[in-house]
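Regression test case RT-17, inverse folding.

Input:
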């Protein structure tokens, strides 16, 4: 298997993987969305809300604010609210008041508009944990008119995208085949229609042939095939040559999302393997 990092920034990572089947990359893609833990706001106690916004909507908007979790990554992997002895949410009882400081982080938000209308931003949320706080300070939460006030007690907890999208560290996670484009020179009339219609500007006319600018840009939409009357151009995806792109909400670095997805996948596959081995020995249930 050959892996090339095509693009890598604070916001996203894109890999070209040659020699791995698409279902494997698709599993990593799905794990990045559903299984990698992060912190997200999960409980909001409304002490005061005299704004025009309903309490439920205010809580919903807060829940969708991505929280920085990168610096707490060890803690994220160490604890699980579902199994934590102190905070277990498995029971039908409400979680206890004195929740442990690994699963939960306390925050609060208190803003009042005096003489002028003001906007409350994510940056106004104060966290007791300096490492777990809104990724961006400029996400608008609610507008307050003069005299209006919000005072909220907030609890963020560790969770996974499987439970709710607010815990997903990836906003986008996609896989696609690398394209193979072939032009039959004998049939091509050099009309240029494929060049005009291509949304990614992959094709261009060079002298008496159609050339490819960057094959990685091709999204295999096949619009070029549809406009080509002599059927001179063909586009297909290549099996086992794939592109994986993960975009982060900012809560974790893109490479951390990738790494944890792989670790969890590997661990679960090992569990399946040992289960099958137990079955073969006749000891499984
Ligand atoms: S549309 Fe077909 S015929 Fe026209 S330039 Fe493209 S490949 Fe050639
Ligand atoms: S398949 Fe779509 S993106 Fe690829 S070359 Fe044709 S028109 Fe362009």
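Golden output:
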């Amino acid at each position: 298997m050959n892996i090339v990092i095509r693009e890598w920034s604070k916001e996203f990572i894109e890999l070209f993987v040659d020699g791995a089947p698409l279902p494997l990359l698709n599993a990593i893609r799905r794990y990045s969305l559903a299984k990698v833990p992060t912190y997200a706001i999960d409980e909001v106690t409304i002490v005061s809300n005299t704004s025009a916004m309903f309490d439920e909507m205010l809580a919903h908007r807060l829940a969708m604010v991505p929280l920085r979790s990168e610096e707490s990554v060890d803690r994220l992997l160490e604890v699980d609210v579902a199994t934590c002895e102190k905070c277990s949410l498995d029971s039908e009882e409400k979680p206890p008041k004195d929740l442990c400081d690994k699963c939960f982080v306390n925050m609060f938000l208190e803003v009042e508009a005096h003489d002028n209308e003001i906007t409350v931003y994510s940056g106004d949320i104060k966290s007791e944990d300096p490492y777990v706080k809104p990724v961006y300070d400029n996400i608008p939460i609610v507008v307050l008119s003069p005299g209006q006030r919000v005072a909220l007690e907030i609890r963020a907890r560790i969770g996974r995208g499987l439970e709710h999208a607010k815990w997903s560290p990836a906003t986008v996670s996609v896989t696609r085949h690398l394209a193979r484009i072939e032009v039959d020179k004998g049939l091509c009339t050099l009309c240029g229609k494929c060049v005009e219609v291509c949304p990614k500007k992959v094709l261009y006319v060079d002298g008496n042939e159609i050339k490819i600018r960057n094959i990685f840009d091709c999204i295999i939409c096949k619009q070029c095939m549809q406009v080509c009357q002599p059927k001179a151009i063909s586009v297909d995806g290549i099996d086992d040559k794939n592109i994986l792109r993960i975009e982060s909400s900012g809560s974790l670095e893109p490479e951390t999302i990738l790494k944890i997805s792989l670790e969890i996948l590997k661990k679960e596959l090992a569990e399946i393997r040992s289960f099958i081995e137990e079955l073969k020995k006749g000891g499984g249930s």
